[in-house]
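Quick one: co-fold with nicotinamide-adenine-dinucleotide.
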Amino acid sequence: MKYALIGCGRIAPNHVGSAVDHNLEICALCDIHPEKAEALITRYHLKDVKIYTNYHKMLKEVRPELVAIATESGYHPQIAIDCIQNGCNVIIEKPLALSMEDARRVIAARDKAGVVACINQQNRFNAPVQLLRQAIDEGTMGKLLHGTLQMHWHRDADYYDKPSWRGTYELDGGALMNQCIHGIDLLRWMMGGEPTEVMAITDNQLHPYIEAEDIGLAIFRFRNGSYGVLEGTVNTYPDNLDETLSVYGETGTVQIGGIATNKLTCYTVKGETRSFQALSEEVNTEPKNVYGFGHSFLYADVIRAIQTGTQPYVPLEEGLKALEMVLAVYKSATEKRPVSFPLENYSTLDVLRSK
Ligand SMILES: NC(=O)c1ccc[n+]([C@@H]2O[C@H](COP(=O)([O-])OP(=O)(O)OC[C@H]3O[C@@H](n4cnc5c(N)ncnc54)[C@H](O)[C@@H]3O)[C@@H](O)[C@H]2O)c1
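Sure, here it is.
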């Protein structure tokens, strides 16, 4: 399967590594800074890979079947639409877009072209997350009561400085939109998927040189009667501590911690016969960074979807839902009032305009 990557920055090795894992034919790497593509070619000992600085030219000349988009977040929607309109299947890095309208535009383009399009919310593939998902699907957790997502990470001035798009409303957003969206996606997915209302606070406590928030706190109400509590910060001293998802059901308590929801820290579910130790040994992983191992699983799933003409496990609708959660938090914090779902139209730029 002919594959190309647009955006060869910090997260690009996870994409190229996954493409290598699954024997994709890596035809082209595209970045406006070609030396970044060259570095990937050297690192992965790639052969016969063309380097492009213009993705339109690349799409026309190479005609890849699958394109991964890993540029600055604000550029995702237009690049995705251009790829889709050229008949490419796409893997789009999170977040899908920075506005509801843009996210819907990408979904409409996919529907028109009939390609496979997936959002890169890779932590859904973490084995402890899959274990919890199965317990909820089988009903062993009982009635869901409430869930919490706590992300205690650390990002310093160096991170935001190089490159300077980070923390801007035009291209990124803050701790919730960039870092915490993985956990926010998991919280929504586990708690029934349908929030009805949110009340939130965001602030910038330690990073005066960025526009957006470095901490966000929120309480969600879900249609199934459960609640969600969100605590996301990049101010944790001195380094990334954990990203922990806890789900409390009438007959089950499950907590998944580790630096990126990769380690079972509690699994007490009615009727479960396997020991906590046995389960932990089966599902826990030790990733070297917060990106984890999910990219490769996600690539396997997208390849399966393309080959079988079926939906990917994490379709764009799930990217839109995660985006909606973050934008609703931004709106609630900005307007200092509860915000109801569904969120019609809102964007990170609306936050900027209200300042
Ligand atoms: N899934 C994850 O765990 C994860 C982790 C980190 C980043 N991300 C996401 O991946 C995206 C990229 O983040 P990053 O940290 O790698 O950023 P980065 O700044 O390191 O890399 C982005 C690259 O895109 C290139 N680029 C910009 N416009 C381009 C264009 N028109 N054509 C080709 N290349 C272009 C830039 O030159 C840059 O090299 C962001 O949306 C971010 O949210 C996801």
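If it helps, The mean pLDDT is 97.
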